[in-house]
């Protein structure tokens, strides 16, 4: 490996000879002295070079440096409190241009999001944008660690399926040798299969695919889904309890590791929520938002995005909480595999989790009784024949179980107060975006 | 949650009342006393019920129990060293059938692999098969922890692409609204994009797709790829060094957590390899296997599977090592993006990693000089126009970098001495298998 010091470690390095590598952020090419701001994955540092009056190859290199070029430099590290950037600088003794950039950068700080996504690899060079993915790394590792400490099994369910995983809508079709396959819309059926297999508790973080033609800030045709499923639950309450603990563990890890940087680059204070999160049955939530003067303009029993914002505002005012579980959704607007309430068959043992006004999760207890499950599928107009591979999971015994699916991008978007999934996705995919 | 004790924890539980839940493995319905072996995700325990001479609903339940049914029982835990299964049993006071199984099980221990895969959710109920996925969980977590402790960033690259990620062969085509998309054959281009973005060190564990019509024990149309890519390397040696350390960390974690179970269920001693792994240039490897009497029957410069087995046998005999890096593959048989040797343009700075005779990884330093990269693409008959989105990554500066891709299933197969990827994959996908 190149024998370099990470820039973040310079402040703990004694004055004297050092070598660093990274890319050129800015050049100030003055008559008597030249300055370069060099950035690597950990930070930025000022390089200084007083021009010599004789032949000066370093000065010539710096004069020709295009921003973005990757270089390796050696020099003397000096503490200098006058230097705004970290209170130190490196006086150059050697500079090697490893990879030259084209002089014209195609995007600027004020470029449109679409233009920035065209040049995502340059867009991600800003410390703010690369921070997003270091935060996401911490978030995911904390979630996996929470699960692994509790003996969950990680699964990788197939993304190629012979039939739809959720519904016939929003389905991508694949040419599969002489036939057809479909891309998994969720790992739903295969998470449940693990329960029939006796795995007990499982999780998966992986891609899902939705042929959703919409262009909202919250939808993508491919996104990362965070999924868990657990056996021997009494109701969806057990799933909510696990999920809220999981989120507290994950947000605590993020706040501890990145709280200050998040404040610096996003002006956001990461709030670790208190336990338990508030829970409000959907019918009650609709009454509450109606009392606030908002009638949800839907013919069905569902909430709408404005209703979710209204109930979040109510919860923030009343409980000082950013999260709320809306529970007991009507069976009419839930998938056939959600278990219904014993006392009231018109509602399900299910929930959505709303964070700062936006839905990030659907969870539920699943119907595990084969005859009830088959009947519910038929009521939704599904053909049990087409679902036979899934229904088989329930014919040979299966414990009561439930789980949730959570969009990783939505969590990142809401955590960092971003307006759009595109900002927090490594490479966004939508109806008219398949590149880079 | 159901208030149950995991079966593995019974041995540390005092005698007295307990409740356990799981599925019925066997029933011995004798005249005076009934025995049930109950299994959960953690182990198995014997339940005992002496028949009463009066009305005995528990006895009736047990007589009607089909294997596979999920039940919850309460009773008195008794230490009894005569009981082969863990030296304890539970004398029943209550039994609830939670979910009845069909009496006829469609597979048996001697069913064909294809039949077992048709009923994978039952096949996975055996302690041996469920252990595979607990081991995989430990392996993956150890790898991710190794990376995260070293400040790697986790990425999720898109699986939907506008053009091929590796080659025009083995490509799945997707109907994408009015156009077409392709499934990623690897995260290769997007791992490299992270280097241009200045991420430094990244990893991804996720699905990749190959429209490969072959039916070998080592190929699948969808599999989980373990990928890493790092900046500022001097050569492929730096990548090998990281990968061997990673594997030592992962295998150490597996051996510590599951070594005894693996011995019990697979009769395999997990060997933590010594560092460094042997390295042999491919040309020398071919001379060595030729000296052993095997001439690789290929027109090109590549190894073949038998050659890989032969060189592995040589390495085992000579160095007592299960792993070997074969290095310096000919440029003619490597992708255009592998960097060539400075002194000999006919060979690449690349390697394959062979474990016990089977290839599990290809790694390389990547060519990052745009003019060389473009020329190498053209020499391979590729159209730089089609690759323009990828070639753009190299026009604005990029550090020297390299990485590897490793098939998770192959690692599991070789670790557990299994004959086939199908045995170690949650749900295998091949040319004629898309279900369940």
TrEMBL record, chains A, B:
Gene: aspS
Region (Aspartate): 188-191
Aminoacyl-transfer RNA synthetases class-II family profile domain location: 133-436
EC number: 6.1.1.12
Family in the record: Belongs to the class-II aminoacyl-tRNA synthetase family. Type 2 subfamily.
Name of the protein in its database record: Aspartate--tRNA ligase
GO MF annotation terms: aspartate-tRNA ligase activity; ATP binding; RNA binding
BP-aspect Gene Ontology terms: aspartyl-tRNA aminoacylation
Residues engaged in binding ATP: 359, 407-410
Physiological role: Catalyzes the attachment of L-aspartate to tRNA(Asp) in a two-step reaction: L-aspartate is first activated by ATP to form Asp-AMP and then transferred to the acceptor end of tRNA(Asp).
Keywords: Aminoacyl-tRNA synthetase, ATP-binding, Cytoplasm, Ligase, Nucleotide-binding, Protein biosynthesis
Binding sites annotated in the UniProt record for L-aspartate: 166, 210, 362, 366
